[in-house]
Specification:
single chain; 298 residues; alpha+beta; eight-stranded mixed β-sheet; four-stranded mixed β-sheet; 24% strand; disordered C terminus
């Protein structure tokens, strides 16, 4: 009788274990790139963009703020087409998130160690989940010369949007944010916000089964540029956006997700922009650093 009761109790608790609540995923933690020339990459990130760095084994880390950083690793041989090695997301409970993914039959590539673990998404992209901390996650402090102190999103080439959505949206809870294309007849970019924050992940679609190296190498973090435009230019753009009422959700059908109004903050290192007009406006408003300068990752 006791055995029967125990088995019944286990059977009742099993669905609860699988249906456990997903821990919060709050934003982009880091993006890791491969480089064929460490000296040239350091010239770009340290001198052009103004970041300081620290080493963790053979990886060089450039903190963007206390919670975000860029990693540069040596290019392996044979060299992959994509120079993006990994994307990291912050979570408030890495241990519980690892258990959650295991319960949903997601293989763990690197078990939890030093507050992080990694998995592969359905298309083989390495995704690292990092325990969010209260102090600076990566040394050294960000210098005043840094071109930006915010990394707003990361992205990569995607072949099967449905499979990626099953992982990011259905399992992890990412939310539809916006989609757009190179023209009004196509959807080439699809973005989804992290479940518990404002950063987002972008799919780059319609690049064919074997995207060229140039396309794959465009997988860079997007950093709002600190001094890309002077205050006069930012004010003129803000006035133009408000004149056309772009601070509210636009009426055109291709827009999905909430608008982010352009506004100046007391913190001069962050400039928010409207992302509803596609990549062109995003680049002109933010003048994202990785597009203002060609980095030497190739």
């Amino acid at each position: 009788m006791k055995t029967l009761f125990f088995c019944t109790l286990l059977a009742a608790c099993a669905p609860l274990a699988v249906a456990q609540k997903r821990p919060a995923i709050t934003g982009v933690a880091f993006v890791r790139f491969y480089t064929a020339d460490a000296t040239a990459s350091d010239e770009f990130y340290a001198k052009t963009l103004g970041y300081s760095s620290s080493k963790a084994g053979d990886i060089t880390r450039y903190p963007v703020n206390d919670l975000q950083w860029i990693e540069v690793a040596p290019l392996p041989s044979p060299a992959p087409v994509s120079r993006q090695a990994a994307v990291g997301f912050m979570t408030r409970d890495a241990r519980s998130l690892e258990r959650y993914l295991k319960a949903h039959h997601i293989a763990i590539v690197d078990e939890l160690h030093d507050g992080r673990f990694s998995v592969l998404d359905p298309e083989g992209n390495l995704i690292v989940f990092v325990q969010q901390v209260k102090q600076a996650a990566v040394p050294p402090p960000v210098p005043a010369t840094a071109v930006s102190r915010r990394m707003i999103h990361a992205g990569f080439v995607v072949q099967d949007q449905a499979k990626e959505n099953a992982f990011y949206r259905e399992l992890l809870g990412f939310r539809p944010y916006w989609h757009g294309g190179r023209d009004d007849t196509s959807t080439d970019y699809v973005a989804q916000q992290v479940p518990d924050g404002s950063d987002w992940l972008e799919y780059m679609l319609n690049n064919g089964p074997h995207p060229c190296a140039q396309t794959a190498r465009l997988q860079r973090p997007h950093l709002p540029r600190r001094r890309a435009y002077g205050r006069r230019h930012r004010r003129a753009r803000a006035q133009r956006l408000h004149r056309h009422q772009l601070h509210r959700q636009p009426p055109w059908p291709r827009w999905q997700g909430p608008a982010q109004p352009l506004r100046s903050r007391p913190d001069p290192h962050r400039v928010h922009g409207v992302h509803s007009l596609g990549q062109d406006l995003l680049l002109r408003v933010h003048c994202i650093a990785s597009h203002c300068h060609r980095d030497p990752l190739t």
